[in-house]
Design brief:
The protein is an alpha+beta fold and 296 residues long. Helices cover 22% and strands 24% of the residues. The strands form three sheets. Strands 1, 2, 3, 4, 5, 6 and 7 form a seven-stranded mixed beta sheet that branches. A three-stranded antiparallel beta sheet has the order 10-11-12. Strands 8-9 form a two-stranded antiparallel ribbon. The chain starts with 18 loop residues before the first strand and ends with a strand.
Length: 296
Amino acid sequence: MSEILTSWFMFPELTHGPFLAINLSNRKSGSKNHNDNLMARDKTGNWDIPAAGRKDGLKGKTVVLFYSTPQQSSRVYVGTINAHRIAGKTEHKPPRNRYELTAKDGWELVAETSSNFSEFFAGFRMSANPTVVWMDAQNYVPEPDRAADAENYEPLPVPPGISYMAWVALRENHRVFVKNVIRVWGRKCALTGIEAPFLIHAAHIVPWSVAKGEEKTTEHNGLMLCAHLHALFDGYQISFDDEGFLLLSSNISIGVRNLVLATRHTRLRIKPSLKQRGFLERHRLGTDGETKWVKS
């Protein structure tokens, strides 16, 4: 098995879709035995395949099996569909085919995680309890970088109460950036030192939409930050000086200021590198030099 992964975007093969994600919940022992027997024969089934999968065909496509058992860590397996056969019919009117899928080279265990199916595939919009989901780049709906283009951001016109699949923030080679930043900072917040997989983000100093070429993926243009600090950093409410000391915007509200300072951490855990200082300087000037920075 590779390193422990916490999200789909950390596994390179999954960032290039399309792939079929199947949630094997195994809530009952009978289900677990059935799925174990199928997986031992490099198979899984029988599944009602989403329309996009039926249209595009299944052979050669990637399949992700999210194998969960109550009170245990979930396991994520990946395989490539070599063959499929009709295993039955759905109860729809008219009924649709249900398929049994065969993996070409078996199932590769790529991750163990404490997250559930929906958490692991965060970034896709889906129903509350999906079973078989077709992840297709054609459904990718890129959102603008709000830090650089907040005034022009408009949410997509979607009727209320509608669920649809979309890749919300997929960026080519973003995974390279994440790995580079983790290599420097680990999986802990660069300021607070907190380690929480679903709370800590790899944040660009100079936004992705503004950065050029290698600036998009270099570790010098990144910090691991808690989610709320990431949002404030992107919104130019906080920054850091060349020595790594926390800076607050002069127009930050009292309540937010108190939240930022609640942990009493006011300096980055690692002093910024020479190259990183250049990115931090650009961040401090990111609002056309209008923001006044005050040391915390």
